[in-house]
Specification:
The complex is a heterodimer of chains A (about 425) and B (about 270). By secondary structure, chain A is α+β, with helices and mostly antiparallel strands. Chain A has helices spanning about 5-55, 135-170, 175-185, 200-250, 255-285, 300-315, 335-350, 380-385, 400-410; strands at about 70-75, 85-90, 110-120, 125-135, 295-300, 320-325, 330, 355-360, 365-370, 415-420, 420-430. Chain A has three domains: about 5-165, no CATH class; about 200-285, no CATH class; about 295-430, Heat Shock Protein 90. In chain A, the strands form three sheets. A five-stranded mixed β-sheet of chain A has the order 6-8-9-11-10. Chain A has a four-stranded antiparallel β-sheet with strand order 1-4-3-2. In chain B, helix 2 (about 60-70) links the parallel strand 2 and strand 3 (about 75-80). Chains A and B meet through helix 4, helix 5, helix 6 and helix 7 of A and helix 2, helix 8 and helix 9 of B.
Chain lengths: ~425, ~270
């Protein structure tokens, strides 16, 4: 949800709630004032009746004025309590031609009314007096005031929303500018985060923080690159010394079988150590996207080169090779592409049995590498993790991790499945 | 994984994996051979080579020195930037093995110094920095080759031999060892004038042996030279055995002496005896 939408929603709801409460209070207040006004009128009327009775010693004649009805009824002495009531007022329609009598019934309508129950004593008789006034005009007034208020509220809301929308859009422009910069940011290129033109302190601060963070990330990244190179140097030099000493050692003549066996073991251990170290460094480099140059590569040519490279090894293990290669051009780092293929080929050979089979397929959508081997499928979730090795594997346990990293680096997907006795690795160029 | 040691190698005739760079190397050869009469490198003649080893790591320096110090060869060693700069400005060498990270300075600066003074010495950079930038920098600045640590001494020797062959003998394209004659341009091997048909890898292997004549070359070194160090076929060097067997068979059928000996199950030795 966009901030402006969220903001508008909250704004809208609170405005409506507040307006409703205000409206209610407003209505009550006006209603109360007007009722008091009515009550005052009623009191005046009552006073008039009392005055009339005091002067004339009989009840006034009941007459109906506009919006006022007075009725007297005899009541036991002292039974009437003086009170104001909300009641209904039956308005009889005029006797003019416009309103006719209908079926003997008096036609009229009920309106809200305000009444005063009071009592008067004429001689020894006690009367209950009921004065009712119509409140219809009051109600009309209230309704009018209320309608105008609602109208004003709606207008205000509309204006508020529009201005909010306009202001927010304009206000947040620098924010979106910074977002765009961040999205384009890469630690590897030398482009700085550009300064946003804004007068708002918060965005200035954000821009500043982002620029600072970017500079720090670049600095850390550079540090890491230096560290990687240093680590590589520090580790490779001793390995190089061991290697060269071994090379020198075997030049001295006359080894017993036992000694040469030991030397052979040393050689393979050093070469493994070296490969492991190289793999780790490569992994760090790929993960840090240090190798990001792109060149157009004809993958088919590369696969064919790799097949030629592995020819003797296939032959030596008696592996049957089936190829189905279409032309496929990719844009990638040739160095990484070669490592990827090398890993896939090495795996297909290493986990194969003598006289097994390898199938390689390449089309516009994917590169598939199938090999016979163990009868059971590999655990898909584990094979791509670091240092996962099948029993008896001589590899570093990093080959598939590196392969997957390379694929991700290229924007491809590396999948594994097992079917009909073939372990299959698929480099999917399309589905990411 | 494989470090692209060979993709950028300028050891022309050994470069099989990068047809483009091989082609340019070939063109280079032919351009040179127009200006110079065909000369041949006679391998069993003792030719004194002068080599300077600039390497701060003592163990490595000593090993390289020992490996290169055959009869007649002169190996000089320096361990730091200052001494190296003095040496390269005082004397000329057939090949300089140059480490990039040196106490007191950067090996690249020594290379720049050499090129500024137009010294013709062959330069092979040996570095632990396997970053593409460094490699390209080095080669662009005029280094002849770039080898990443750790390496086998036999690989180093093969590369140095290739550089010296190009520099000293003006890109000669004939390599002669007793009855074996190798035409580097045509990639042909002849034994007493009769052609021996070798596969690409067998040919590369023969050259590798010739460069390391008299030395025991380990099976690891052979595997890494022919298949790259990413081959990762640890402990399974049977396929090397079949290669060696094939070469010996082909050469001996053409009437060549058997020069290749197995050495204690660790490797092979190309020797006259």
């Amino acid at each position: 949800m966009k901030l402006s939408a969220k903001y508008n929603r909250v704004n809208f709801i609170t405005t409506i709630v507040v307006m409703l409460i205000t409206g209610l209070v407003y209505y009550q207040a006006i209603s109360w004032i007007l009722t008091r006004q009515k009550d005052k009128d009623l009191k005046v009327e009552e006073q008039e009746i009392f005055e009339f009775v005091r002067l004339n010693h009989h009840l006034p004649q009941i007459f109906e004025s506009n919006d006022q009805q007075i009725s007297f009824s005899e009541a036991p002495s002292g039974s009437v309590r003086r009170e104001f009531i909300n009641t209904v007022y039956f308005k009889q329609w005029g006797k003019d031609a416009f309103h006719r009598k209908h079926g003997g019934k008096i036609r009229g309508e009920y309106e809200a009314g305000r009444g005063l129950i009071t009592s008067v004593s004429v001689g020894d008789k006690y009367y209950k007096v009921r004065i009712v006034e119509s409140k219809v005009e009051t109600e009309d007034l209230i309704r009018l005031i209320f309608t105008i208020t609602i109208g004003v509220i709606l207008l205000l809301l509309l204006v508020l929303l529009t201005t909010n929308w306009l202001i927010l859009n304009r206000l947040w422009r620098p924010f979106y500018g910074i977002m765009k910069e961040l999205r384009l940011f890469s630690v590897t290129d030398s482009k700085e985060i550009s300064k946003q033109d804004t007068a708002i302190d918060e965005f200035k601060e954000l821009n500043h923080a982002v620029a600072e963070m970017a500079a720090k990330a670049k600095h850390d990244y550079k540090d890491l690159k230096i560290f990687t190179e240093n680590a590589s140097h520090e580790l490779l030099t001793p390995i190089a010394v061991i290697n060269s000493k071994l090379d020198t050692l075997i030049q001295t003549e006359n080894f017993s079988d036992r000694q040469s066996k030991l030397l052979n073991d040393l050689y393979s251990a050093v070469s493994r150590l070296n490969r492991l170290n190289q793999s780790l460094l490569l992994l760090v480099k790929i993960e840090n996207r240090l190798l990001h140059e792109r060149h157009p590569i004809n993958l088919r040519e590369l696969v064919e080169e790799m097949i030629a490279q592995f020819e003797e090894i296939f032959h030596d293990k008696g592996l049957k090779l089936t190829c189905n290669l279409d032309d496929k051009e990719i844009s990638a780092s040739p160095y990484l592409a070669e490592i990827l293929l090398n890993n896939l080929f090495s795996n297909a050979v290493r986990h194969n049995y003598s006289g097994g089979e390898i199938r390689i397929g390449l089309n516009a959508g994917c590169l598939t590498m199938q090999n016979t081997g163990d009868d059971n499928p590999l655990p898909v979730e584990k094979i791509f993790t670091r240092f996962h090795k099948s029993s008896g594997s001589e590899g570093s346990g990093l080959g598939l991790t590196i392969s997957r990293q390379i694929c991700e680096n290229f924007g491809y997907k590396l999948n594994y499945y097992f079917s009909a006795g073939f372990h299959t690795f698929v480099v999917d160029f399309i589905n990411k | 994984m494989r470090i692209i040691s060979s993709s950028f190698s300028t050891t022309g005739e050994m470069n099989q994996r990068n047809p483009k760079s091989f082609k340019s190397a070939v063109e280079n050869y032919s351009a040179k051979s127009k200006n110079h009469p065909k000369s041949a490198v006679i391998f069993n003649k003792k030719i004194a080579l002068k080599i300077l080893i600039i390497e701060d790591e003592e163990g490595l320096r000593e090993s390289i020195e020992e490996y290169f110090s055959e009869a007649g060869n002169i190996c000089e060693t320096v361990a730091n930037y200052r001494d190296a700069l003095v040496k390269v400005n005082l004397y000329r060498y057939d090949c300089i093995l140059l480490d990039i990270t040196l106490p007191g300075g950067n090996g690249i600066d020594i290379l720049k110094n050499l090129k500024e003074h137009n010294h013709p010495d062959g330069v092979l950079i040996i570095s632990a920095k396997n970053s593409l930038d460094d490699r390209l920098d080095g080669l662009n600045l005029g280094a002849d080759d770039y080898l990443v640590k750790p390496f086998h001494l036999s690989e180093l020797k093969a590369r140095v031999s290739a550089i010296i062959r190009r520099k000293t003998f003006n890109g000669s394209n004939l390599l002669i060892f007793n009855e074996i004659t190798i035409d580097l341009l045509a990639k042909e091997v002849k034994v007493d004038k009769s052609l021996v048909k070798l596969t690409r890898k067998e040919y590369a292997l023969l050259l590798y042996f010739l460069a390391n004549k008299g030395k025991v070359v380990s099976k690891n070194a052979i595997a890494e030279h022919l298949w790259g160090d990413g081959i990762d076929m640890a402990n399974n060097f049977d396929f090397i055995y079949s290669h060696i067997k094939n070469i010996r068979k082909k050469l001996m059928e053409a009437g060549c002496n058997d020069y290749i000996q197995a050495a204690y199950g660790m490797g092979y030795k190309f020797t006259e005896q």
